[in-house]
């Protein structure tokens, strides 16, 4: 079966800013209204900061799927709209349906995020030949359609940064980039290329780690 190494990048869904629930602020012993307001403002800023990590409040802005170092599929948003996101999510499912999916932390993040975004966007992954999310993220499965390299290396419930394993095993690294710049990057061809290069490097590092451990740990 063809292996497709896959990764997504996400951004805050700014169209949902007005729907964010009001953050809970524990004033404690604070009595000064100005200080309470400052604390509330800080809590709101932290909430907005984390929007990209939730499929409710974020959106997929880019993805890369690689069959090998030369056969690489990639898509990036060109506008922050549901229609544009639906386009790239559907393209991702069309690619992933071709074979076994290989990810780094895809069990906890990439696959749950893109599947839940699909639900919110009115997309049915099954129409592209994709199995249910539960099948891809199950700890035990008769047909292993998804291999999560982080789970293989660390064990369930454990976490290690991709960059740390790549440095130790491959003597290579992720590209350094500030994820806060992603919304700005998708606005220009140069920015989109930079974003996809960043995502592609993550995918190729994951693919190389997979090639090193296949047949030994898997």
Please explain how this structure is put together:
- With 218 residues, the protein is of the alpha/beta class.
- It has a single domain, classed as Ribonuclease H-like superfamily/Ribonuclease H (Nucleotidyltransferase, domain 5), CATH 3.30.420.10.
- 44% of the residues lie in helices and 14% in strands.
- The chain has helices at residues 33-49, 82-96, 106-121, 133-137, 149-154, 162-170, 182-185, 189-213, and strands at residues 3-12, 58-66, 72-76, 100-103, 146-148.
- Strand 2 (58-66) and strand 3 form a beta hairpin.
- The protein is globular and about 65 Å long.
- The relative contact order is 0.18.
Task: Describe the structure concisely for a colleague.
The protein has 218 residues and is α/β, with parallel strands linked by helices. It contains 8 helices and 5 strands; from the N terminus they run E-H-E-E-H-E-H-H-E-H-H-H-H.
The helix content is: 40-55%
What is the CA–CA distance across the termini? 15 Å
Number of helices: 8
Assembly status: single chain
- Low-pLDDT parts are none
Instruction: Please identify the top-level CATH class.
Output: Alpha Beta
What's the number of domains? Answer: 1
- Helices and strands, in order, run as EHEEHEHHEHHHH
**Average pLDDT level:** 93
CATH topology heading: Nucleotidyltransferase, domain 5
> Over all CA atoms, what is the radius of gyration?
19 Å
Tally of extended strands?
5
Structural class: alpha/beta
CATH homology superfamily: Ribonuclease H-like superfamily/Ribonuclease H
> What is the spatial order of strands in the main beta sheet?
3-2-1-4-5
CATH architecture: 2-Layer Sandwich
Query: Which band does the percent of strand residues land in?
Result: 5-15%
